[in-house]
Design goal:
Helix 5 runs parallel beside helix 7. This protein has two domains: 100 residues, 3-Layer(aba) Sandwich (Glutaredoxin); 106 residues, Glutathione S-transferase Yfyf (Class Pi), Chain A, domain 2, CATH 1.20.1050. With 218 residues, it is of the alpha+beta class. The mean pLDDT is 96. Strands 2-1-3-4 form a four-stranded mixed β-sheet. Helices cover 58% and strands 8% of the residues. The structure holds S-(P-nitrobenzyl)glutathione. The site of S-(P-nitrobenzyl)glutathione has 11 residues, from loops.
Length: 218
């Protein structure tokens, strides 16, 4: 009998239930796949202990455990789920390869300048070069968003039916929610809204929010 996978997530996520920590990507993929899962919550201290380091060499969340298989990296985890369940990758081989390309593009091409912009705010906000660097970094993000918006055009999803590639792009774009950068492209804003309106997304979001609410309730 196939085992129910267990993922790890923050015991106390710094995002306070906003669904911005990376377990949300895995939860969403599992919900799209209709795959039940368990969650093991870990503290920051536990994440750096040998038991968790055996699961994740960098001491981070999320991880994914299914029988003998232990995985880290959200790209690898989402791809694994998508390859084993219907609903997240097309069957036709070329369309499937293109959907996987979008998954890689989300992580390798779109997310890096977004993370850099984000990190600059909290890690370099008080540095003398900060004011000069902001427009530079925003420019790099804008370059990616412009290209993404152009490619999406008036389509519902990036390449045919909703795929793991869309899931990852939506999650990466969500990282810009505290800015107006996505809103500069109404088609991208509508695309993110479509992703967030999916029932599987809602279930995943509510599940991670419940962790925060339970903790708040004491
Ligand atoms: N490349 C890895 C992957 O995709 O799986 C990156 C994993 C990662 O960065 N995990 C973060 C982590 O464990 C949590 S998600 N950090 C702890 C550590 O490195 O010690 C990153 C994150 C955290 C908080 C917010 N937030 O508060 O909004 C958003 C995103």
């Amino acid at each position: 009998m196939p085992s129910i996978p267990t993922i790890t997530a923050f015991e106390a996520s710094p995002d306070e239930g906003r669904g911005l920590a990376r377990d949300m990507r895995v939860r969403w993929a599992l919900e799209e796949a209709g795959q039940p899962y368990d969650v093991q919550l870990v503290s920051f201290a536990e994440m750096k202990q040998p038991a968790h380091l055996a699961r994740h060499p960098f001491g981070q969340i999320p991880t994914y455990q299914e029988g003998e298989l232990v995985l880290f990296e959200t790209g690898a985890i989402v791809l694994h789920i998508a390859q084993r369940h219907p609903g997240l990758l097309p069957d036709e081989p070329n369309a499937r390869a293109r959907a996987i390309a979008w998954l890689f593009a989300a992580l390798n091409t779109v997310e890096p300048p977004i993370v850099e912009l984000e990190q600059m705010e909290y890690a370099e906000g008080d540095r003398p070069w900060h004011a000069a660097r902001v427009p530079l970094m925003e420019g790099r993000v804008r370059t990616r968003l412009k290209a993404l918006s152009r490619r999406l055009g008036g389509a519902e999803w990036l390449d045919g039916a909703f795929s793991a590639g869309d899931l990852m792009i939506v999650m990466v774009l969500r990282r810009l929610e505290d800015t107006s950068l996505v809103d500069e492209h109404p088609n991208l804003a509508a695309y993110v809204a479509r992703g967030k309106a999916r029932p599987a997304y809602r279930r995943a979001f509510d599940a991670q929010l419940a962790v925060f609410m339970d903790r708040e309730a004491g």
